[in-house]
């Protein structure tokens, strides 16, 4: 049986509410009442992403994560993890001007469901 449904990074907003979009190089953070999503750039202008639940005891569970470059899913993490997964996309995929974002659904080991709201940055 599933328990509480909570938002990982706050309330969903319309696309116009996030204009202008932050540059990924500024490492924007999207915080909510259940956790934080971090986006940014890494070596070679790759796109990097990660997050954490607050408290971290909520992190173990089944994650369904889609990583977007523009409107296309370029990577996924689907499975049970003992911690909030993280990842990166190379600069050949995360090209200049692309809007990068992630979508997260976590079903924690305690049965609670957490979902991400809108997030993103521009390469």
Concise summary:
Helices cover 0% and strands 46% of the residues.
Description:
The chain has about 120 residues and is mainly beta. It has a single domain, classed as Immunoglobulin-like. The protein is about 0% helix and about 45% strand. The protein contains no helices and ten strands. The strands form two sheets. Strands 1, 5, 6, 8, 9 and 10 form a six-stranded mixed β-sheet that branches. The protein has a four-stranded antiparallel β-sheet with strand order 2-3-4-7, with no helix packed on it. β8 and β9 form a beta hairpin. It is globular, with a radius of gyration of 14 Å. The termini are far apart. About 30% of the residues are buried.
Tell me roughly what share of residues is in helical segments: under 10%
- Counting DSSP H or I runs of 4 or more residues, the number of helices is 0
For the record, the CATH class is Mainly Beta
Mean pLDDT, rounded to whole units?
87
